Amino acid sequence: MAPMASMAHQAPLTHSVAFLARRAATALAAVLVLGAAAAPAAYADSADAPSASPKKLPDGLYGSKDPQYDGVWRQSLALLAQDTVGVRPAASAVNWLAGQQCADGSFTAFRAEPGKPCDAKTLRDTNPTAAAVQALAALGGHGDTVKKAVSWLKSVQNDDGGWSSMAGSASDANSTSVVIGALTAAGEKPQSVTSKKGGKTPYDGLLTFRLGCAAKGDEHGAFTFQLKGAAPNADATAAAATGARGKGFVVEPAGKGADTPVKPLVCKDGDKGGKKAGADDPAQAAEGGDGYLVAQLDKNGQHLLSAMPGAEKQPDVGNTADAVVALAAGAHGNAAAKPLKWLEKNSADWAKQSGPAAYAQLVLVAHATGTDPRSFGGTDLVAALNATGPEPAAAAKKDTEDADDSKDGGGLGVVWVIGVGLAIGAGIGFLLSSRKKSRL
Asked: Whole-angstrom Cα distance, residue 219 to residue 424?
């Protein structure tokens, strides 16, 4: 996979589109290796591209945008978010996700024709596969689907213990982290899942991306996206700090008033490689990652920064949300509270523009921090998320009570208009064209 350390989470893109950028770069790299110098516009027609998007969106799919690059990903996040708040999704939504699986257990970004078998041209991907595992395991009733997906993930584990987005490519911190979350969700013990050669665990693989004391002062503890072109990366660090604790997208709240102070990585002389600073301890690595995130949040006004190539750095809502979840995973209540407040004030427009994956991500932030997702900076995230997909099979009790209050004049009804302004295709084309100018 092409190095994406500087692009792993671009503002104002959603968490799912960050995944798209990494995935698109991988596909382009594969094409170039095969000698096909395809232009960005030709990506969708290449042999390694996801199956073509239909003119009419499938029943059960969340969002109104082209699902070609992120259908399974955004569907998985939406279903997970609904599950955390007690909303039972429509059967059509769950069945659509389960129906996207290939016979070997893998998932790709999107299959327009689920009835057509996956073949050698199908771009199987660990990221949507791991996301689907987390969603279907949480919902229950799809044990065989989850088991097959986990078996496939194990079959493409790299010798270093980690995973890349595409099988056969070099491991990266983000893919390794999302697979760890899937293993945990499926009832597996990540530390017991070892590579065929070398017997490396997912934690062994993940910790190879830890820069530790090799980074400069305020970047101690940071993770890089990939080893090649290693540089501190906030998105990779947030993912790794969560994954190193064996957690996935859903992080249970530590409890009211719970707070463990963040312990930044302390480096001494001779610790350049980090070997004397808990380099082999996932828990200490996670703490070091949290310390890096807090330093960056404090520096930037309680949000993280990102920038499209050639553009000025700007607040990155999705990456900030990831950081809050990572801090909550470490029971760092006070450290998470400050960027959480920033999110409550500044995420509404981003979520409205970006759609179901963004609303879902914020619901998961609220869940991890014990915040009310129905009143998140003045936005009812649950209602907004529900509005992007098929009507839920059963609403949460609280939502039913709120609806009754509204009918009786005791509350205000809210109509949510979901924006479709984010041009995924244009963004992916821009990212791809940028990467073609650099060494893949």
From this structure: 32
* Per-residue pLDDT at 53: 56
Nearest to 40 by CA among 439, 436, 422, 438: 436
User: Phi and psi dihedrals of 316, rounded to 5?
Assistant: -110, 105
The dihedrals phi and psi of 47, each to the nearest 5 degrees, come to: -65, -25
pLDDT of amino acid 306: 86
Q: Residue 316's beta-bridge partner residues?
A: 304
Is the model more confident about 47 or about 222?
Answer: 222
Residues 6+ apart with CB under 8 A from 275: none
Cα–Cα distance for residue pair 190/187, rounded to 1 Å:
9
Q: In terms of C-beta distances under 8 Å and separation of at least 24 residues, what long-range contacts does 263-266 make, across chains too?
A: 263/287, 263/291, 264/220, 264/221, 264/288, 264/290, 264/291, 264/292, 264/294, 264/295, 265/212, 265/213, 265/220, 265/221, 265/291, 265/292, 266/220
CA atoms within 13 A on the CB side of 176: 39
**Res 147: pLDDT:** 98
Q: In 285-416, at which residue ranges do the beta strands (DSSP E only) sit?
A: 304-306, 314-316
| Residue 364 contacts residue 81 (beta carbons within 8 Å) | yes
DSSP string, 2-46: ---TTTSS-TT--HHHHHHHHHHHHHHHHHHHTT----GGGGGGS
pTM of the model: 0.81
* Omega prior to 12 cis, within 30 of 0: yes
